[in-house]
Design goal:
Blueprint (H helix, E strand, L loop, with lengths): L3 E12 L2 E7 L14 H9 L3 E7 L9 E7 H33 L3 H26 L9 E6 L2
Antiparallel strand pairs: 1-2, 1-4, 2-3, 4-5
Helix pairs in contact: 2-3
Length: 152
């Protein structure tokens, strides 16, 4: 069995086979007791808490007002994070390297060409990450599921 990340949500409405959920965005990762000295926790408290709404298939027959447990595979979150962060970063570094190489080849400003190449690489990497993310939409492996009801 694979590890899963879980979050409690409140059912706001039921629409046929789907349910509208409200999840309160937490204060950082919540993984430790160092919240006072953690940068993630400080950023989260600076931007405040807000609710996120999700529309998911109602596989549990949940009713408005009930609490449900959402689950998503930890591997899916790791792959998504790698796509969002690593692909643009690789594009930035590769673009800067190519720009620097072009600068030496054609006798241009090395720093300027590295900066321009890095910017183009970053933009290309961000576009590629967006495309990868878009092509994964609708894939059930990357979507949260209702795993348990808390009638109430």
């Amino acid at each position: 069995m694979t590890a899963a990340l879980e979050e409690v949500a409140t059912v706001v409405a039921v629409d046929g086979d789907f349910v509208l959920l409200e999840v309160e965005r937490g204060g950082g990762c919540g993984a430790c007791t160092l919240k006072g000295s953690c940068g993630v926790s400080a950023l989260s408290s600076a931007f405040g808490r807000r609710e996120v709404q999700l529309r998911l298939r109602n596989t549990l027959g949940a009713l408005p007002g009930e609490k449900v447990l959402l689950s998503i595979e930890e591997g899916a979150v790791a792959r998504g994070s790698a796509t969002v962060y690593a692909v643009p970063l690789v594009g930035l570094v590769a673009g800067a390297g190519i720009g620097h190489w072009l600068g030496t080849r054609f006798g241009l400003s090395l720093d300027g060409m590295a900066a321009v190449g890095g910017l183009f690489g970053l933009l290309l990497g961000a576009a590629l990450a967006w495309w990868i993310g878009k092509s994964g939409r609708g894939d059930a492996r990357f979507e949260p599921v209702l795993s348990r009801r808390f009638p109430g």
